[in-house]
Design brief:
The protein has 208 residues and is an all-alpha fold. Helices cover 71% and strands 0% of the residues. The chain contains 8 helices and no strands. The chain is globular, with a radius of gyration of 19 Å. The two termini are 19 Å apart.
Length: 208
């Protein structure tokens, strides 16, 4: 194991292993967030027998978890590529470019799970433009209608998803104080905690 530990602690491999751990954290977080939500929705509003509902829960959880894993790993890969292109230097707008491309590729497909995630991200981006308070956060009926909601245009949604993700990644890196605490903690887990490990256990099995 000493040879493996040497690789894990070698700075030369850090950026590449951070991509791997980022994918791991993205997958774990996606399961933690989506599974209870999908379970409650299936209990309250699900249709069909329980076998059908369980399949729906599984599909939604799998999609959320895999998409987050894909986005985090792609985002970190794009940051690394830009860093290498610029002679090892990081620029402030690298995060926006990486988030923009990652958001388009991973979350640009219009479906129920992606719509929920992108709208959540968008709300946090819009809220970040509000003036900040001087003190920090304290951390401690449906009506019948003949109208049927229509989904957004697929192409416009892809662009919308890209811009939202590019903006939120730039904000997290450059103006983290404007991000809502719940999302800030989530993004810290996904993008910053995945930069640190001291063994194979904390690389793949446990976050810390």
């Amino acid at each position: 194991m000493s040879g493996l530990d040497a690789i894990l602690s070698n700075p030369a491999y850090h950026d590449y292993l951070a991509i791997l751990k980022g994918a791991r954290n993205g997958f774990v977080y996606g399961v933690k967030v989506r599974f209870p939500h999908a379970l409650i929705m299936a209990i309250l509003f699900g249709r069909g027998d329980w076998q059908t509902r369980l399949r729906t829960i599984y599909r939604a959880t799998k999609q959320h978890a895999l998409n987050l894993a894909k986005f985090v790993s792609l985002y970190k890969t794009l940051l690394l590529v830009q860093k290498k292109i610029n002679g090892g230097k990081e620029r402030s707008f690298d995060t926006f470019i990486a988030g923009l491309i990652g958001g388009y590729v991973v979350f640009g497909d219009r479906n129920a799970v992606n719509e929920q995630i992108v709208l959540y991200v968008c709300s946090r981006v819009v809220a970040s433009f509000l003036s900040r308070a001087k003190s920090p956060y304290n951390m401690s009926s449906t009506a019948s209608s003949g109208v049927r909601p229509l989904p957004p245009d697929a192409t416009q949604f892809s662009i919308f998803a890209a811009v939202c993700w590019g903006a939120v990644m730039w904000l997290f890196n450059e103006r983290g104080e404007t991000i809502q605490p719940g999302m800030f903690n989530s993004m810290t887990y996904l993008y910053r905690d995945s930069e640190h490990w001291n063994s194979l256990r904390t690389l793949l099995w446990h976050n810390k």
